[in-house]
Amino acid sequence: MTPITEVEGRRVPLSNLDKVLHPATGFTKGELLHYYATTADVLLPHLRDRPVSFLRYPDGPEGQRFFTKKVPPGTPEWVTTAQVPRSEGPGRMVLVQDLPSLMWAANLVAEFHTHQWVVQRPEVADRLVLDLDPGAPASVVQCCEVALWLRERLAADGVEAYAKTSGSKGLHLLAGVRPTPSDLVADYAKRLAVEAEKALPRLVVHRMTKSLRPGKVFVDWSQNAARKTTAAPYTLRARTEPTVSAPVTWDEVEACPDDAALTFLACDIGSRVRDHGDVLAPLLDPARSAPLP
User: Fold this and answer.
1) pTM here?
2) Where is the DNA ligase D polymerase domain (predicted)?
3) How many angstroms separate the CA atoms of 217 and 134, rounded?
4) What is the pLDDT of residues 5-43, one digit of tens each?
5) How far is the C-alpha of 281 from the C-alpha of 284, rounded, in Å?
């Protein structure tokens, strides 16, 4: 029988707590749920009001993985949903607004991916994202070099950038922007990627073409498109270790000596939040959002 836990007055079923999900460390589903419960204070503000897509991996990263964008069958009636535009036509998606909703969603075993806009303003972005994806033998070390160039380029336009690990191989740069149609944000992000390639031709490529990417950092600007999503801050990733898309300081980016220096597991996040707070908290303050040039 599936155990039922009460979370802030809601009855939340939590199943298969002993199931190993991240085999390299023996990280179980119970530990995954504990991670999300203890990280909720910093995670939830980055999810709130943003329709969530779930990359589900219920049997671990080596099992079946699949995206869920529609409201999953069996979703409790108290979980907030909203009708939103999607590539395949309008549909209802989940909003993770509170701790009970987060724990219900975490029980699905999923990465959390969000749009760059909130449900009150569909397809009008309030965030800009640049996904720095290294092509071997390039690594996160090269991503850091590119990130520093992009930080200065954005600053020249009055846009303040923040960084987080992707939780996989690279880095994500994020910036708060005044509400702007997503297509215009995507156009601006593409211009930045093209400029980065011109300035750092040995390091950067702005096109996804695989033959161009070995040894370089692909600056993926396309995730600013209205229908695209990006891994949310603090989400676990579907990898053999329980890696996290973790906010990082610019000091850490500048000092990055190797891949391991910017790899963070679930067990690392509590102490990082105690030491640094939420490095991405400024993104939550509309007053700190910048107009795009």
Assistant:
1) 0.95
2) 28-278
3) 4
4) 899 999 999 999 999 999 999 999 999 999 999 999 999
5) 5
Give the number of C-alpha atoms closer than 13 A to the C-alpha of residue 290, restricted to the C-beta side. 16
What are 220's two structure tokens? Answer: 């993926």
User: What structural domains and CATH numbers belong to the chain?
Assistant: 4-114 (3.90.920.10), 124-263 (3.30.70.3300)
